[in-house]
Amino acid sequence: MKTQSYGNYIRLVPAFHFVLVPLGFVTLTAAIVYIFFAARNGISLFVSLILVSLSLMMVMTMIFSRIFACKAQDRAIRAEENLRHFVLTGKLPDPSLTMDQIIALRFAADEEFLSLCAMAVNEHAAPDKIKRSIKAWKADYDRV
After folding, report:
1. 54, 73, 84, 111, 128 from 117: Cα distances, Å
2. What does the alpha-carbon distance between residue 50 and residue 32 come to, in Å, rounded to a whole number?
3. Pair 17, 56 in one domain
4. For FRET with 112, which of 10, 18, 55, 129 sits at 20 to 30 Å CA-CA?
5. Is residue 60 part of a domain?
6. How many distinct structural domains can be found in the chain?
7. Short-list 52, 45, 49, 47, CA closest to 31
8. What is d(CA 91, CA 82) in angstroms, rounded to the nearest whole number?
9. Which residues, including other chains, have CB under 8 Å from residue 23's CB and lie 6 or more apart?
10. Spatial distance between the Cα atoms of 107 and 11, rounded to a whole number of angstroms
11. pLDDT digit string (tens) for 68-126?
């Protein structure tokens, strides 16, 4: 696997991002267009409405499954980074750290983790700034 860095840490799953998502939106769009086609030609709207409902359910399931998986990963990352901070300092991280900052800090090696935590709190640093400040990148190949 390619060494991870700021330039390539974003992970795309081709089957999800380039096939399933576009296909879901194309299907929903086609179902909506079919409603207008059916209404214009006097065809029963029952089948059309079922197609739209099923397509909408499919798209919503796809979106929510992604959101729920990311939320579960965020909770795991927060727990891991809280533990790492506790191991390094004997105390929990500053509670003013946002979830996005904590997620960005997970890429920092232990040697710079504490200084980046301080920078994040003191400067209210954006996650992108935190990631750009990391010198020794700690890869996370498990995030999807």
Report:
1. 46, 20, 12, 11, 14
2. 11
3. yes
4. 10
5. yes
6. 2
7. 52
8. 9
9. none
10. 14
11. 999 999 999 999 999 999 999 999 999 999 999 999 999 999 999 999 999 999 999 99
Q: How far is residue 143's CA from residue 106's CA, in Å, rounded to a whole number?
A: 11
Assess if residue 47 is contained within a domain: yes
Q: What is residue 1's predicted lDDT score, i.e. its pLDDT?
A: 65
Domain membership flag for residue 82 = no
Range of the domain at 104: 93-138
Q: Do 34 and 69 sit in the same domain of this protein? A: yes
Tell me if 126 is assigned to some domain.
yes
Angle at 84 between CA 82 and CA 88, to 5 degrees: 115
Alpha-carbon dihedral angle through residues 89, 75, 11, 96, given to the nearest 10 degrees: -50
Residues in the chain: 144
Q: How far apart are CA 59 and CA 74, in angstroms?
A: 23
Are 98 and 68 within one domain? no
- Cβ-based neighbours of 133, under 8 Å, separated by 6 or more: 116, 119, 125
Whole-prediction pTM value? 0.81
